[in-house]
Model the fold of this input.
Amino acid sequence: MGGKKAFVNFTEDLLIKKVPTLFPKDVLVVEVLEDVKPHQEVVEACKEISQGGYGIALDDFFYTSGWDPLISLADIIKIDFRATPVDTIREYVENLSSFGVRFLAEKVETHEEFQLASDMGFEYFQGYFFSKPQIVSGKDVSPSKINLVQLVAEANKPEFQFEELEKLILRDVSISYKLMRYINSSFFRRVHEISSIKQAIILLGEVGMRRFISLIVMAKLASDKPEELVRTSIIRARLCELLGRHSGEDINGAELFTLGLFSLIDAIMDQEMESLMNKLPLTESIKSALIAGEGTLADFLRIAVSYETGDWQGFADATRKLGVEEEKVPELYLEALGWADSINAI
Done:
């Protein structure tokens, strides 16, 4: 789970049977569904589950006094921002905070909703707000940020150009510093210190440089964004690359990696995708996939996105079109998750 806990729904029957206790408590938050009746048997089961060290969340919460025993056991209360009036949400937060619970806002889909929930006291959020750009009219991308994006694009070109990459890295002092610090760290156990950017690039090699630059640069670009935005970009990059190996298409893996990596760049930069693509040295096939969702590359991204969001019809259509076995995708997705976590640990 990448160090995070999974929120898993449990029905009334499963709670009474204490099925959640079959899972490790350090990776699980037990979600009590909204249609569960909070009678004594359920309360006692949840009390035992809670005493076992499991976190408990109340899903799609709507308050009635009968829920008080479960609220006292809960760690998190999830409130649907789309289905609950704002005044009611404020009332819930004010009145239920005394129980010591934390609040999670569900279906937060705009920056304004995210800001409102945050101001109300919500600490956790679910929704697609972070994957959409917050377009500000008249706002332009700073040259320093364009340089960073160009750096990632250059690092992930099929024809890896060491000389051009060196020039781009030298333009950014902080990345140069982090690269030198990384290559001279105890992780590599080098006898002699590496003293130049060129040496560092050569020693890390193509794969190592892609990992390093993708993580450092994307994290820097999204420093004011939810961390999951960068993680999702990296997961998509790796997943698209892996899907290419298991499809009937002959497409360069580096191009698929770049496709996934840049799939959320509009949300990271708060700019229209088309405007950003006009500034970047990417292939026309990548630009067409990201701007208009057209071409073979778009189908690879469609598999990744539909799998994330549970759009199973779109998932089935895209896998069939590319000749990817549906049963293989969960395995590839888990591999992509593991890869993303490994480079986040660098």
Observations:
- Residues 143-344 form a domain with the Hypothetical protein af1432 fold (CATH 1.10.3210.10).
- The chain has a mean pLDDT of 84.
- The longest helix spans residues 197-221.
